[in-house]
Specification:
Length: about 425
C-alpha cells in the first residue's frame, strides 16, 4: 500500500527556517506512511510557481501585505484567489489527498475547509501562536504599523480563525495552555491535541565542541562565563529586562559576555536594544550576531555556559511553547527561563535549569546561581535536560503524535463512508 498524501497549507514564508516543519513532516512522517506536499507564500515571486522544498513538491504563492485597512482587504482577497488557484494546480499534479493540514493562516483554513468538505476528507488546523491576538496587542502598543490596520487584521482574523477552528476535524494547539485558551473561545476539548515545540536530539552535543571553541577564541573568551539568548528580538518580547538583569550579573561576574543571536522584526528593534545596552553601560559585554544559520546557532549555544529564555507573561506568550529552551537543553546547555506554563513545565520536569518570575532581579539571581556552580555541575544539569527532551520533545515523538491523529481521522472518515454506502 502506498503512502497517504497530505497537502500542507503553510503560513511560513518559503524557504521556512523552521526545523519543526522540516523534521516532523518531511523527515519523520514518511516513516509512518505519510508524504507531505506543500503550499506556502514567497516574497520573491509575483505569480504562482511549482517548486520543491527539500525534495518534496511545493507550490509557492505571492506573499501579500496590506499596509492600511483598504489595502489589507484587497491583499486578503488576492491571497484567497491565489490559494484557490494553487490548490487546483496541486490537485491536478499530486492529488487526490487523504488529509489537509493548515498552519496558522485563516485564509488558507477557509479554503481547506471548503475543499475538504467537497472531497469528504478530514482537515487539521494547527495554531503555533496567537497571531491575531498579537496584532491587537501591536495596535494597543502603537508598534509595527497603523493602529487601525493592526486592530482590523487582528479582529477579522480572530473571528475567522475561531469559526474555522470549530469546523476542523482536529486542532493542534501548541501547548496545553493554548488548548485551554481555545476552549474558552468555544472549541471542543476532545478534538484538540497539543503538539508542542520540539528539538532534534539525534545530533550529539560533542559534534559542535571544536567549532564552539573556535567561536570563543574569535570573541576573545578564555574562562569568562558566556550567557546566550537565541531568538526573535522584536519589541513585543520586551528584552530590555534581559539587558537589565545582565547588568546586575556583571556586578558579580564583570567579565561575563551576553550573546544575542537573532534579529528583530524590523531593523529598529535591534537598534533599540543596542541603544539600551549603551544607556545602562553594558554594551562592551554584549555581542549582537544578527541572523545566523541553524547550524551556527547550535555552535553558539555549545559555546555558551548558560542559555536564557525570558518570555513575558503576556496573554499571547502565556500560550506559547518556547523553542529556545528545548534547543539549549538538547545541546546540554543548562537554562534560566521565566515561568510561562509550557516553559516552566519543561524546566521543572527535566531539571535542566532554573525557572524564575518575569523580573530582572529574579532572572539575574537564576543566572548567578548557575554561574556559581562548577562546569561539571552545570554539565550534569544540561545532561538531565537533554535526556528529558529526547524522551518527551524530540521531533520523532511529536511526529508520532501527529501520525496517530491522522490515522484516527482518516479511519473515522473511512468508517463513515462505509456506513453511507451500506445505507
Amino acid at each position: 500500500m502506498g503512502k497517504k498524501k497530505i497537502l500542507f497549507f503553510c503560513s511560513e514564508t518559503y524557504p521556512p527556517h523552521y526545523e519543526f516543519l522540516e523534521k516532523v513532516f518531511n523527515f519523520h512522517l514518511p516513516c509512518y506512511g505519510y508524504d507531505t506536499v506543500w503550499m506556502m507564500p514567497t516574497s520573491e515571486a509575483l505569480g504562482i510557481q511549482m517548486h520543491t522544498w527539500q525534495g518534496r513538491p511545493a507550490i509557492l504563492i505571492p506573499k501579500l501585505r496590506g499596509e492600511s485597512p483598504i489595502t489589507l482587504f484587497s491583499a486578503y482577497y488576492r491571497h484567497l484567489r491565489n490559494i484557490r488557484k494553487a490548490f487546483d494546480l496541486m490537485m491536478k499534479a499530486h492529488g487526490p489527498f487523504d488529509l489537509l493540514q493548515v498552519r496558522d493562516d485563516p485564509a488558507m483554513a477557509a479554503w481547506a475547509h471548503l475543499a475538504a468538505t467537497r472531497a469528504n476528507i478530514p482537515w487539521v488546523y494547527q495554531i503555533s501562536h496567537l497571531k491575531e491576538e498579537e496584532f491587537i496587542s501591536y495596535a494597543r502598543m502603537g508598534i509595527y504599523g497603523p493602529r487601525s490596520k493592526n486592530i482590523m487584521q487582528g479582529l477579522a482574523g480572530l473571528l475567522l480563525r475561531n469559526f474555522l477552528l470549530g469546523c476542523a476535524q482536529a486542532v493542534f494547539p501548541i501547548s496545553e495552555r493554548m488548548k485551554n485558551t481555545l476552549a474558552r473561545y468555544g472549541i471542543r476539548r476532545n478534538k484538540m491535541v497539543p503538539v508542542e515545540e520540539g528539538a532534534d536530539t539525534s545530533l550529539l552535543p560533542d559534534k559542535f565542541y571544536k567549532k564552539a571553541k573556535q567561536i570563543r577564541q574569535r570573541l576573545g573568551i578564555r574562562d569568562e562565563p558566556v550567557i546566550i539568548y537565541v531568538g526573535t528580538m522584536n519589541r513585543f518580547r520586551r528584552l530590555e529586562i534581559l539587558l537589565e538583569s545582565f547588568c546586575i550579573v556583571l556586578a558579580r561576574h564583570p567579565g561575563a559576555l551576553l550573546l544575542m543571536v537573532g534579529e528583530g522584526r524590523t531593523p529598529d528593534d535591534l537598534a533599540w536594544l543596542k541603544r539600551r545596552s549603551k544607556d545602562i553601560g553594558i554594551f562592551n559585554n554584549v555581542v549582537f550576531t544578527r541572523h545566523v544559520s541553524k547550524q551556527e546557532v547550535r555552535v553558539y549555544i555549545k559555546a555558551a555556559d548558560i542559555g536564557v529564555s525570558p518570555v513575558p507573561a503576556s496573554y499571547v506568550y502565556m500560550s506559547s511553547s518556547p523553542i529556545k529552551v528545548l534547543e539549549y537543553l538538547a545541546l546540554e546547555t543548562p537554562v534560566v527561563g521565566t515561568d510561562i506554563p509550557d516553559q516552566k513545565f519543561v524546566i521543572d520536569n527535566s531539571r535542566g535549569g532554573i525557572c524564575v518570575g518575569w523580573d530582572a532581579g529574579e532572572l539575574s539571581e537564576g543566572i548567578n546561581k548557575l554561574l556559581e556552580l562548577t562546569r561539571e555541575q552545570r554539565k550534569l544539569i544540561g545532561r538531565k535536560g537533554r535526556a528529558w527532551v529526547s524522551k518527551n520533545r524530540d521531533f520523532s515523538v511529536l511526529a508520532q503524535k501527529v501520525a496517530d491523529t491522522y490515522d484516527r481521522l482518516i479511519l473515522a472518515v473511512g468508517r463513515s463512508g462505509s456506513k453511507e454506502k451500506k445505507g
